[in-house]
Amino acid sequence: MHLTFFVYTQNVLNPTLKKILKFVVIIGLLALFLYLALRSINFDDLVTELKKTNYFLAIAGGLVGVVIGSYFRALRWRYFLNPIKENISIKNLFPPIMIGYMFNSVIPRGGEFTRPIILARNENISKAASFGTILVERIFDVLSVLAAFGISLFAFRDKLGTAFPEYNIEKIALIASLITLGIVLFLLLVIFNYEKSEKIIEKLTVKFLPVKIQVKVREFFVSTLSGFLFIKYPKQYLPIFIYTVLIWFMYILSAYITFFACGINSLNLVDANLVLTMITFAMFLPLPGNSAGAFHYICTGTLVNIFGIDREVAFGYATVNHLTGFILQILIGAFYFFKENYKVKDLQN
User: Fold this and answer.
1) pTM more than 0.70
2) Is residue 13 part of a domain?
């Protein structure tokens, strides 16, 4: 009886405790970053700066990044999807992207799963294959960030070292680059040795997994790899590269326009690239509300420590930049979600 009770309580409490622990950790990190960003802030001066903000210009900047950037993302996504299903209409690719952003804003990384599910249902393709293209996209996004950070290292090497003395920025960038390069080389090896890779997976599943799920795991592996098949079509490399550059440039332009909305007139596009890169690093943390807190802390610190912007102006910029993007993603994503008559229950299933 005691053993039965112990097993029962373990089965019931463990998932609950894990959820509680995860919630506490996330809220704790959120509070910590907000505290770090808000300390030494004069709230009267902050309110004054927020009142002076040109919100029409801020919304215009947000639209450039959220809408135009996402449109170019949809165009690039089509090239990743072509080996699975050719020439999917942009009007069928753009809504899942925006719905995915909406879910990412509420549930950290939630959109990475909802987007391929929605597309797979609408286009009658494999969910795993659709998810594979999202993995490809994330690799290209990481490569974009590393390339942008390389430019920033070249332009602001001394300032970065001074602004963040507790971190070896160059070492972190080198390690991240090597890890990304290793992942890319591994994927290339797997793709160009597809049959051998499939046999290796089959042997591993037979050896380590129960019979019931062996076939499902192998099918998932094969389907997911199909999301990387664009590699076998060199003619697609140039447009993919062009759209990758355009996506990042739209994000830079969005950050740059928001400078003017917040009265920061002394910074240029190269400066906006550094601010955007540092913000993107912050958003790698899976925190709710588009990495709120971490976003504000890193953005404010970059503007204050590297460019000498007043702390209240810098925090005001971080707040406006974050809030416009967050609200636009929620509103546009919700519009398409209800327009297409989707239900959260369907995505959960």
Assistant:
1) yes
2) no
